[in-house]
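hiii so um. not sure if this is the right channel but i have a protein structure encoded as tokens and i wanna go backwards to a sequence. like what aa goes where. can anyone help
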């Protein structure tokens, strides 16, 4: 089994697409007005509008803007550089400035327009670097 994607269901599809394009510096692939993907080497972040829920059995399947348990994480080359690049844009969304955590990643936490928690991180300790050496950024 291979994890293929994580999907965010949103009522703010245009806003979320623009947000993730700005944060990642990568254009999302738009398949329809209601569905787009950010494709990376390791996994795809899909963004679907609430209108797509009808394809899965109705709007009771998921609720936009209600995630309180998952963190969307991106490994980056240098989290301090990304913080400097994004701090003004994210000023009202920042949860934690770059901080080295006990497991060896330096993390920058903020929320997207749907209140999902996003973590940009860089491994900084020898153990964390070794753990991630298998997958290049």
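sure thing!! here u go:
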């Amino acid at each position: 089994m291979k994890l293929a994607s994580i999907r965010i269901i949103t009522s703010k599809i245009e806003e979320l697409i623009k947000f993730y394009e700005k944060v990642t510096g990568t254009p999302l692939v738009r398949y329809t007005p209601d569905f787009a993907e950010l494709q990376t080497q390791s996994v795809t972040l899909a963004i679907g509008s609430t209108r797509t829920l009808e394809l899965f059995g109705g709007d009771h399947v998921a609720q936009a803007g209600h995630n309180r348990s998952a963190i969307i994480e991106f490994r980056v080359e240098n989290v301090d550089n990304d913080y400097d690049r994004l701090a003004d844009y994210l000023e009202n969304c920042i949860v934690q400035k770059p901080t080295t955590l006990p497991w060896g990643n330096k993390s920058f936490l903020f929320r997207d327009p749907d209140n999902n928690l996003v973590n940009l991180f860089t491994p900084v300790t020898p153990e964390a670097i070794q753990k991630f050496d298998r997958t290049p950024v």
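oh and The mean pLDDT is 90.
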